[in-house]
Design goal:
The complex is a heterotrimer of chains A (102), B (130) and C (136). Chain A is an alpha/beta fold and 102 residues long. Chain A is built from four helices and five strands. Chain A has a five-stranded parallel sheet. Chain C is an alpha/beta fold and 136 residues long. Chain C is globular, with a radius of gyration of 15 Å. Classes of the chains: A alpha/beta (102), B alpha/beta (130), C alpha/beta (136).
């Protein structure tokens, strides 16, 4: 089964993104939204872990939450795909199950 | 696709209810079905009709109600969580000797079984919380 | 109650008492038992703290709901996954946790352990197989 993982908290506030990455199997996807979008930024203490995970897992970030926080596509790790709520719905549909890392 | 939605947080304090609303709206606009939106923990506060948020910002309860009206959504507030937090309908208020009720018109109060049933009947259940 | 049987997992990642999530998620599990689904519980990260023994809440003025975990067996909740790495990170072992049991009706009501100590890797596989995952 391919799971969609969602992460909505900043990796600097709590370790939900780290925990998610540690449990995400190859072929699954991670969507970063709400404060979770900070996990998509380049040059942070967690960027390395996220980049490494991207070898096995597809990572998406919700554009509206990124822009709300003053960041753009230029600020995020290369390879992370920016999506919107329509894309979020498509991700939930195309994956077999959804797990929210709160 | 049939989606079940769980909202764990109250309006404004966390972005959860906004996110859940936006997801729900996008799913409906794409022609998917929303089996139920279940409000648990502080999420029950989304179901209070007494909120008076600032005029220049979104009114989260009203947004949910307008969506419910347009798409005939089932917005359910968990009775146990609601009692704990003081969100009551007329019947709950009478039953518990309270002098007022505050549930918003498009929400209904029901048991946790409604959440489990949403999980059983939906293709995907998505949780929005903290 | 339902002809459909789905794999439901309740994911617990938060400590008890500091927030209400541990208590209210347990309430969902108990109500959910009536629906005869294929239920598992997972305790990871700070969620493992929910199962510690010796919780004395008197001076904190809060209800001690930890005895409820030992009743889970009576509600047909027999698969309780506890993540090894989460315990180790917190300096805990299984000995620090409640000894949760259930009675196996298929084996003459023999008493068995409900807690399954699993590695992060094993738990990731179990999670992947679930159809509905509830997080609190």
């Amino acid at each position: 089964m391919a799971m969609l993982h969602t992460v909505n908290k900043s990796p600097f506030e709590k370790d939900s993104l780290g925990s998610c990455i540690d449990h995400a199997l190859e072929g699954s996807s991670i969507l970063l939204f709400e404060d979770g979008v900070y996990g998509a930024l380049k040059g942070t203490t967690i960027s390395g872990k996220v980049s490494q995970a991207m070898g096995d897992v597809s990572v998406f970030v919700l554009g509206s939450d990124l822009r709300a926080r003053g960041f753009s596509e230029e600020s995020i790790i290369e390879g992370i795909k920016v999506t919107d709520y329509s894309g979020f719905v498509d991700l939930a549909s195309s994956h077999d199950n959804v797990q929210s890392w709160l | 696709m049939k989606f079940g939605i769980q909202v764990n947080e109250g309006p404004y304090n966390h972005q959860s209810s906004d996110s859940a609303y936006r997801f729900t709206k996008a799913a409906l606009e794409k022609g998917h079905e929303i089996y139920r939106v279940f409000f648990y923990h502080d999420g029950v506060y989304n179901g209070s009709r007494l909120g008076v948020p600032p005029q220049d910002d979104r009114n989260i309860t009203e947004l949910w109600e307008a969506l419910a009206e347009e798409y005939n959504l089932d917005l359910v507030v968990c009775v146990a969580a609601a009692q704990r937090r003081g969100v009551l309908d007329e019947s709950e208020a009478n039953r518990n000797g309270k002098d007022a009720n505050n549930i918003a018109a498009k929400f209904r109060i029901s048991g946790l079984g409604q959440l489990i049933e949403a999980g059983i009947q939906s293709d995907r259940l998505i949780v929005f919380g903290d | 109650m339902s002809e459909v049987i789905k794999k439901f997992m309740y994911v617990n990642r938060k400590a008890p008492y500091g927030t209400i999530y541990a208590l209210e998620s347990l309430e969902v599990v108990l109500i959910g038992a009536a629906f005869d689904q294929d239920v598992s519980l997972a305790f990871i990260d700070d969620g493992v703290f929910q199962l510690t023994t010796g919780q004395d809440t008197k001076d904190a003025g809060m209800k001690n709901f930890s005895p409820t975990y030992s009743a889970l067996g009576d509600y047909d909740v027999t698969k309780i996954y506890v993540e090894k790495e989460s315990l180790e990170e917190r300096g805990l072992t299984l000995d620090d946790l409640q000894d949760l049991k259930y009675e196996d009706e298929d084996e003459d009501w023999a008493e068995k352990d409900s807690i399954r100590l699993v590695s992060r890797e094993e738990l990731a596989q179990v999670m992947d197989e679930q159809e509905i995952l509830l997080s609190f």
